[in-house]
Amino acid sequence: MILILCTGNSCRSHMAEGVLKRALGPGFEVASAGSKPAGFVHPLAIRALAEIGIDLSGHVSKHLDTFLDREVETVITVCGNADQACPVFPGQVNRHHYPFDDPAHAEGDEAEQLAVFRRVRDEIVRVFTAYADGRLDQR
């Protein structure tokens, strides 16, 4: 399993999970969690990913402890706090850190906030598509 961690598990980690699942295709298990889950997936994250054909509407915010008894091969953190709070999972082989701005802190009206979500989404697409390409090349 590839586990993507963030503090709140409401925006960046879910966006990265959706992008990575699509980029890797079947044969890879990808999940996301947080060290202090917000308890919801941000509506603008759901909307920004829907614009590129990725459905996050069924996602839920989860605590990273949910995965401590799972075989996690790779942990990818997408924010500094999660990187610092990240435990080592049994069987973990790889760890990566790709920091992104937190779009949940975007200010302004909804259109201005959505613009920040789109920018972060596009950055996540670039990084995680490249990561997926590397993983697929290793096969």
Automatic annotation (TrEMBL):
InterPro entries from the UniProt entry: Ptyr_pPase, Ptyr_pPase_sf
Keyword flag Metal-binding: no
Keywords: Arsenical resistance
Annotated Phosphotyrosine protein phosphatase I domain residues: 2-134
CDD domains: LMWP_ArsC (cd16345)
SMART domains documented for this protein: LMWPc
Name under which the protein is recorded: Arsenate reductase
Source organism per UniProt: Haloferula sargassicola
